[in-house]
Design goal:
Blueprint lengths: L1 E4 L5 H12 L4 E4 L5 E7 L4 E6 L2 E4 L5 E4 L15 H24 L3 E3 L9 H10 L7 E6 L12 E4 L7 E3 L2 E3 L4 E2 L2 H4 L5 E9 L5 E8 L2 E9 L14 E6 L3 H13 L4 E8 L4 E7 L5 H7 L3 H8 L1
Parallel strand pairs: 1-2, 1-6, 6-7
Antiparallel strand pairs: 3-4, 4-5, 8-13, 9-12, 9-13, 10-11, 14-15, 14-17, 15-16, 17-18
Organism: Chryseobacterium tagetis
InterPro entries: ATP-grasp_RimK-type
Protein name: ATP-grasp fold RimK-type domain-containing protein
Length: about 300
């Protein structure tokens, strides 16, 4: 039996499920509309049973686990619950989930995906990448605008979120904190405190590379954009050109070493190819691989289904 943990609307998991059905493999998928309705753990008899939408499963029966995204949800409580009590319930559920993950691992289930490392610190990632010999853009963290004077302002710089991108609603309008180029002249001679912000030298790219690694395999595509936009995510697919790409042995080796250091079993890597070299930007531990698989014609979904 295979256990899949993902978001309800995750199309990549949908594709993996399609391959599992084709291969006639037995699996259950946990997400927003498939949740645990009952728990029965007997530590004395070593019996650990969960019910998913009222169907019982023994944790011992799960031989493979694939974590794509999301979390395990519970449908055990009924009625309206006070916020403080709900907070307590959620902490209890979190402990139950943590134990289940631990039990599956120690019981010998094959764990695929980042079940135990769902987030990374972008600054830690940059530090590790640099220590492993991957080039990164000149990077600064500033909390006072006057400190911009300590940077070579003749260069172009960008800023982006230090943490993960979060949607923000202000007066019913949606704002997303994409990467933006800085107009350094606008901030000159200003003396005020700001939230500690990341400032990076803008790398003029020939093309960008998105690579997805899973276990000991890696796939990559090159993206060509001719719009000059700083954040390639804001550009429509029809305005970009994609090609499958083979990373060098050296870069592949450094990526896998970084993954081991960060305790990542899979992830999506973003690189920039400039006129002179490759520059590492960041890693996404959730591993968005649909774009890589589709435009590279790699059928990564089938590869993962085969492993499960």
């Amino acid at each position: 039996m295979i256990l899949l943990i993902s978001d309800e609307n995750d199309t990549m998991t949908d594709e993996i499920c399609s391959w599992l059905l084709y291969q006639k493999k037995e699996f259950i998928r946990l997400n927003g509309n498939q949740y645990i309705t009952k728990i029965l753990f007997d530590f004395k008899k070593n019996v650990f049973i969960i019910s998913i939408n009222d169907v019982e499963y023994n944790l011992n029966d799960f031989k493979s686990v694939f974590y794509r995204n999301g979390a395990i949800y519970y449908g055990i409580t009924n009625g309206e619950i006070d916020d403080k009590l709900l907070e307590f319930y959620n902490s209890e559920f979190k402990s139950i989930t943590g134990f289940m993950y631990h039990y599956l691992k120690t019981n010998g289930a094959n764990i695929f995906g980042n079940l135990f490392t769902k987030e990374v610190n972008k600054l830690e990632v940059l530090f590790v990448a640099k220590s492993l010999g991957l080039k990164i853009p000149d990077t600064y963290i500033l909390s006072q605008l006057k400190d911009l004077a300590k940077i070579d302002i003749s260069q172009k710089y960008i800023t982006k979120a230090v943490s993960e991108m979060k949607p923000m609603f202000v007066e019913n309008a949606l704002y997303l904190n994409y990467t933006h180029e800085i107009d350094s002249d606008h901030f000159q001679n200003k003396n005020q405190n700001i939230i500690p912000s990341i400032i990076q030298k803008k790398i003029e790219s020939v093309y960008e590379i998105r690579a997805f690694f899973f276990e000991k395999k890696i796939w990559a595509i090159a993206t060509f954009d001719f719009s000059g936009n700083v954040d390639i995510r804001t550009i429509k697919d029809r305005d970009k050109k994609y090609l499958s790409y083979q990373l060098s042995v050296e870069i592949r080796r450094k990526i896998f070493k970084m993954a081991k250091t960060l305790n990542l079993k899979c992830g999506t890597i973003d690189l920039i190819k400039s006129d002179d070299d490759f520059y590492f930007l960041e890693v996404n531990p959730l591993g968005q691989f649909h774009q890589v698989s589709y435009y590279g014609n790699y059928q990564i979904e089938k590869y993962i289904a085969d492993l499960l």
